[in-house]
């Protein structure tokens, strides 16, 4: 979930220091899951994940990496589970650091490389690297290790994603970044297979994108940064750091406020300092004063810090126990209660929704609880976040294939559409979810809600903001509505507003209070004006007037602005402003945001004409004295449609304003007029003509809508065909993934085989040189008594030429007399004994023939070795340099 900082009072340096000294402990528990600090590992750990092509990238990484960084390196590679790996041996040749394969439990040591064995997954747990069974369904070994590394090491975790296919590693880098660690990915152009690094880069979870060698050099440079070596984890240390660096923090807050429009001084200081230090480590800056100066002139870094402070640790169905409890107990009760109304509607809100996983998880649970039978229940779920960029991603609802480990196959098939290796939320689910940018600490909440899921947001906010948020949630919920908080959160001092309904899952139910809490903008005015009290005179003179006007405008708009809606060119409502129930209503049937279908029947014709005119002329259009009839009362309103565009976008929007000019008057039957005047009759006739025109227009509209229905029916048939094609495509995608996985394993095997071939060539070259330098007749034969190798000196004694390699020994005519040589060789091979015979060549020179078994490296007998020693040469002194003195075969 995402934390929501507020626009809050800005303190001077002295006041900031004082507040640090007297600050109370937070009521909402320790830091959230994204900020865990552990001291178990003896050194920082760098996790390196790769698949196809990752072996070569890992070798390049280790070649450029010094052997004394003080870090441990763990390499997780997609390997064939049924094939022994020599990865550690091959990597050991390119680095001076010891390289070893991880055993059942291995304690990581600095300046050491560890390699995951085949058919196993490795996790970091309790200060050690532990092997666990590999999952059969998905090969996400990199994600598993990175997520455990984030949990275990916090800010001392570093993740690197190298070449590979698929998206393994993306979710893991997200966890590491959320925990305060550093993340790297191989640049796409340098990767042999760029799918894995590309997935992580596009997801936004990578700090630096570099070739493998440059990643190694960058890690060397940050290895001794205080953030990596001595991370602040003790609350007292953090408090002291905040006191010492209050002025620098203030300057950083000011830079963020100027560019991003958000004051982070209400954010929890422990989190602030760690996230700032993380950015400092990436830029190799050790002093916060230097970083404050660097930030002042670097707009991109301000944006990066802003995104860092909005911590994202969400995923689909996070905490499955909670969602099971919702489906089993709370959602059925809510739906049953809501279904009693004439127009049943269930409304939920997820503040700090990040990229939307929590919103869509809740939507899926509600739809599953409703079942597949048609329902009149209208579902509306609001997801809000402070960052516009993540809201845009949430609206698209596109996620990497890494969600497969969090979402069941049944849910993937029913609620997702698979496209190009990604999953998109089905349109039916997206239609019931609305996303918007909002700051829960300043902006008004949604109203008439049945459920609020605000998990792991309050833990990042100061106690001062808890006093605003908890009553705000109480105000927004309907009677009997539920509030869900994170495991480290509670309602604190506001237990009179909420009663605990499920202690294990932190689900609260709204309590009835004698004096209800109402939302009032006046306290916000006080909060806004308080920000000016401690500014310097110069600063106040420059900015006070403008900011004061903004606050005053906000109050005026909230209290007196007319009801309005923002629509697109297709007349779909994007935002409701003010109370629109007099003008709009939700009709029974499928949920819709089409303005004409939401409008009261008497307004449809006027609305359509006004909006069409505004679109056609691209100028504001106005319709005065339109009438609305509701519950026996008649209201007179003005309708205005104002077209506008957002700077930097070509898309057009319209603001439709409903201005009530008279309060509702009760309609009564008037007595029949006696003797109307001509003028009255004319007016009456005009009214009738107008009514007839409206009826005619309504008929035309209905005809057009009927045509639209036919088109819709045709479109549904097309969609049905498309779903069949999509089903076929999914089957092809599955087959493609299986082939891709097999290809990855084959690629890895091929890389190992290539390296083995190189090793074999080296060994063969060494053996050939060794044999060539030995001046003694030696012959090697296999079990079939075929010549395998021979030294040059054996040419004379055994009469062997280079072309005789591979020929049976029986086909040769040696120059020595060895009766029954073949039987002797077979006896040696069978008995494993060693035989020695005195033999004589054709010139009468005597030799000692020694025959011993040929043993392989795995201790198997695969032939025999014949060695000929010149006895005469040993007795009579050295002879000629020919090595044997036996005449060679011509």
Question: How would you explain this protein's 3D organization?
Answer:
The protein has 890 residues and is α/β, with parallel strands linked by helices. It folds into 6 domains: 34-229, Methylesterase CheB, C-terminal domain (Rossmann fold); 234-309; 320-517, Vaccinia Virus protein VP39 (Rossmann fold); 527-557, no CATH class; 561-669, PAS domain (Beta-Lactamase, 2-Layer Sandwich); 775-876, PAS domain (Beta-Lactamase). 41% of the residues lie in helices and 21% in strands. A hairpin with a 2-residue loop joins strand 6 (120-125) and strand 7. It is elongated, with a radius of gyration of 39 Å.
Structure at a glance:
With 890 residues, the protein is an alpha/beta fold. It has 27 helices and 31 strands.
Pick out its properties:
890 residues, alpha/beta, Rossmann fold, 6 domains, seven-stranded parallel beta sheet, seven-stranded mixed beta sheet, 31 strands, disordered N terminus, disordered C terminus
Ranges where pLDDT stays below 50 over 5 or more residues in a row are: 3-39, 518-546, 667-675, 878-890
Distance between the termini: 88 Å
Task: Sketch the major β-sheet.
Answer: 7 strands, parallel
Tell me how many strands there are. 31
Quickly count the domains: 6
The CATH superfamily of the largest domain turns out to be: Vaccinia Virus protein VP39
What is the tally of helical segments?
Answer: 27
Q: Strand sequence of the main sheet, in spatial order?
A: 3-5-2-1-8-9-10
Please name the CATH topology of the largest domain.
Rossmann fold
* CATH top-level class of the largest domain: Alpha Beta
The average pLDDT is 80
Oligomeric status of the shown chains?
Answer: single chain
What structural class results from the helix and strand content? alpha/beta
Shape descriptor: elongated
Radius of gyration: 39 Å
């Amino acid at each position: 979930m995402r934390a929501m900082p507020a626009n809050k009072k800005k303190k001077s340096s002295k006041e900031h220091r004082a507040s640090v000294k007297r600050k109370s402990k937070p009521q909402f528990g320790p830091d959230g899951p994204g900020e865990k600090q552990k001291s178990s590992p003896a050194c920082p750990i760098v996790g390196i994940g790769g698949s196809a092509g990752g072996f070569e990238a890992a070798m390049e990484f280790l070649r450029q990496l010094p052997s004394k960084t003080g870090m441990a390196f763990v390499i997780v590679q997609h390997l064939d589970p049924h094939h022994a790996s020599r990865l550690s041996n091959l990597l050991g040749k390119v680095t001076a650091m010891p390289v070893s394969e991880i055993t059942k439990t291995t304690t990581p040591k600095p300046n050491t490389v560890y390699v995951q064995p085949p058919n196993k997954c490795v996790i970091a747990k309790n200060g050690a690297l532990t092997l666990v069974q590999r999952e059969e369904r998905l090969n996400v070994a990199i994600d598993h290790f990175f997520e455990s590394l984030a949990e275990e090491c916090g800010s001392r975790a570093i993740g690197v994603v190298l070449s590979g296919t698929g998206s393994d590693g993306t979710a893991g880098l997200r966890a590491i970044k959320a925990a305060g660690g550093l993340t790297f990915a191989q640049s796409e152009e340098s990767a042999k297979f760029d799918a894995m690094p590309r997935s992580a880069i596009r997801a936004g979870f990578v700090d630096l994108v570099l070739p493998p060698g440059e990643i190694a050099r960058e890690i060397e440079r940050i290895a001794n940064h205080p953030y990596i070596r001595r991370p602040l984890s003790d609350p007292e240390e953090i408090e002291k750091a905040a006191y010492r660096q209050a002025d620098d923090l203030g300057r950083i807050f000011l830079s963020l406020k100027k560019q991003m429009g958000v004051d982070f001084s209400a954010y929890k200081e422990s989190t602030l300092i760690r996230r700032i230090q993380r950015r400092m480590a990436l830029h190799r800056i050790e002093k916060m004063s230097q970083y404050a100066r660097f930030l002042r002139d670097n707009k991109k870094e301000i944006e990066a810090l802003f995104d860092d402070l909005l911590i994202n640790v969400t995923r689909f169905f996070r905490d499955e126990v909670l969602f099971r409890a919702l489906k089993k107990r709370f959602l059925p009760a809510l739906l049953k209660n809501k279904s009693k109304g004439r127009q049943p509607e269930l409304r939920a809100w997820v503040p700090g929704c990040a990229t939307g996983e929590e919103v869509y998880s809740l939507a899926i649970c509600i739809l599953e609880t409703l079942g597949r039978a048609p329902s009149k229940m209208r579902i509306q779920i609001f997801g809000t976040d402070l960052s516009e960029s993540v809201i845009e991603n949430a609206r698209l609802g596109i996620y990497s294939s890494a969600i497969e480990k969090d979402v069941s196959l049944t849910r993937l098939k029913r609620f997702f559409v698979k496209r190009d290796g990604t999953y998109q939320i089905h349109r039916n689910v997206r239609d019931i979810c609305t996303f918007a940018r909002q700051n829960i600490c300043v902006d008004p909440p949604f109203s008439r809600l049945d459920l609020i899921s605000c998990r792991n947001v309050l833990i990042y906010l100061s106690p001062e903001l808890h006093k605003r948020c908890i009553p705000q949630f109480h105000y927004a919920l309907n009677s009997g509505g539920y509030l869900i908080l994170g495991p480290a959160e509670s309602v604190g001092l506001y237990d009179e507003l909420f009663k605990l309904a499920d202690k294990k899952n932190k689900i609260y139910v709204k309590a009835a209070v004698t004096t209800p809490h109402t939302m009032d903008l006046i306290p916000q005015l006080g909060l806004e004006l308080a920000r000016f009290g401690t500014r310097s005179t110069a600063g106040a003179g420059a900015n006070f007037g403008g900011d004061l006007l903004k606050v005053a405008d906000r109050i005026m708009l909230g209290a007196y602005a007319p009801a309005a809606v923002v629509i697109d060119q297709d007349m779909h409502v994007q935002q409701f402003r003010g109370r629109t129930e007099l003008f709009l209503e939700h009709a029974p049937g499928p949920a819709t945001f089409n303005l004409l279908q939401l409008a009261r029947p008497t307004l449809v014709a006027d609305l359509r004409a006004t909006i069409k005119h505004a679109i056609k002329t691209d100028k504001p259009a106005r319709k005065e004295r339109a009438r609305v009839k509701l519950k026996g009362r008649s209201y007179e309103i003005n309708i205005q449609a104002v077209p506008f565009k957002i700077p930097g976008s070509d898309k057009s929007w319209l603001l439709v304003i409903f201005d009530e000019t008279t309060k509702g008057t009760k309609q009564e039957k008037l007595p029949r007029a006696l003797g109307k005047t001509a003028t009255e009759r004319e007016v009456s006739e005009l009214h009738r003509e107008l009514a007839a025109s409206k009826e005619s227009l309504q008929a035309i509209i209905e005809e057009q809508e009927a045509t639209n229905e036919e088109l819709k029916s045709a479109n549904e048939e097309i969609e049905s065909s498309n779903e069949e094609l999509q089903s076929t495509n999914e089957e092809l995608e599955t087959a493609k993934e299986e082939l891709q996985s097999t290809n990855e394993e084959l690629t890895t095997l091929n890389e190992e085989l290539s390296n083995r071939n190189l090793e074999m060539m080296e060994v063969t070259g060494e053996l050939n040189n060794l044999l060539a330098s030995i001046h003694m007749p030696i012959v090697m034969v296999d079990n079939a008594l075929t010549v395998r190798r021979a030294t040059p000196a054996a040419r004379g004694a055994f009469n062997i030429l280079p072309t005789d390699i591979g020929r049976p020994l029986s086909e040769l005519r040696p120059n020595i007399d060895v009766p029954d040589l073949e039987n002797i060789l077979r006896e040696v091979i069978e008995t494993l004994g060693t035989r020695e015979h005195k033999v004589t060549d054709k010139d009468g020179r005597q030799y000692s023939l020694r025959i011993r078994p040929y043993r392989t490296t795995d201790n198997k007998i695969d032939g025999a070795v014949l060695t000929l020693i010149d006895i005469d040469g040993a007795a009579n002194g050295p002879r000629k340099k020919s090595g044997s003195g036996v005449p060679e075969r011509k």
